[in-house]
Design a protein that fits this description.
alpha/beta, Rossmann fold, 8 strands
Length: 230
């Protein structure tokens, strides 16, 4: 019997984040997923997901009485800025009675725990979303995105078809830390190879979200939290 429950909200076409969490959550934590309708990775489609589909999905997954809910879309979290993302997750938490983790905020926290100021960023996104990610990371003035490379994919389902080797193939060099963005990107499976190749710390959206989730579960002593990637 799982003693703790993690609620996960993902865009409906996301096929990666759920699997990453299922494979790496602590053994005492169960995963319960809600899907927010979204098929295109564009600012317009993400705005519609935020405005129309996120709250109903959150309320639905909250009926499973999770101990934490993860809002599992990096670029939608960055879309309207960090202040909006914080307020939005606060509203979801208020409506569900459950703590809510923002992936883009978890990413900034994960980067802050590692040694790196000059960031390289790899994404599957179009330029408009890349710019939002850059602004979110640089807003506090402590980080500098020196290069950001996107694949220009607008069909979210297709993002999951990019292989870990493909992700490794267009990683930048001469950086202090690499961030690979998108919860539907198979970047978790490329972390070790990227770190070995670049010799810098590597953060991915799902790695950061999992770290934040495990930290939240640590507040419940009956859960034995294992290291991500066990």
């Amino acid at each position: 019997m799982k003693t703790k429950r993690v609620g996960l909200l993902v865009p409906s076409s996301n096929t990666v984040m759920e699997v990453d969490f299922q494979q790496r959550l602590p053994s005492h934590a169960g995963l319960h997923t809600g899907r927010m309708y979204m098929e295109e990775t564009t600012p317009e489609a993400e705005a519609e997901m935020l405005d129309r589909h996120a709250l109903p999905a959150a309320k639905a997954v909250a009926s499973a009485r999770p101990h934490v809910i993860v809002f599992g879309c990096t670029s939608a979290g960055a879309l309207r800025g960090n202040a909006y993302d914080a307020e939005f997750c606060h509203r979801l938490a208020h409506e569900t009675g459950t703590p809510v983790i923002s992936v883009i905020n978890a990413v900034r926290q994960a980067i802050g725990k590692r040694d790196g100021h000059r960031l390289g960023v790899v994404t599957p996104y179009i330029d408009e979303l890349n710019q939002k990610i850059k602004e979110s990371l640089e807003q506090d003035g402590e980080l500098e995105v020196v290069t950001i490379a996107g694949l220009g994919i607008t069909e979210n389902f297709a993002i999951a078809e990019v292989t870990p080797d493909d992700i490794v193939g267009f990683a930048p060099e001469r950086i202090d830390l690499l961030f690979v963005s998108c919860t539907n990107f198979r970047a978790f499976d490329a972390v070790d190879q990227l770190a070995d190749q670049l010799e810098v710390p590597v953060v991915t959206s799902n790695l950061a979200a999992l770290e934040a989730t495990c930290q939240q579960l640590e507040t419940h002593p009956e859960v034995s939290v294992e290291e991500p990637g066990r």
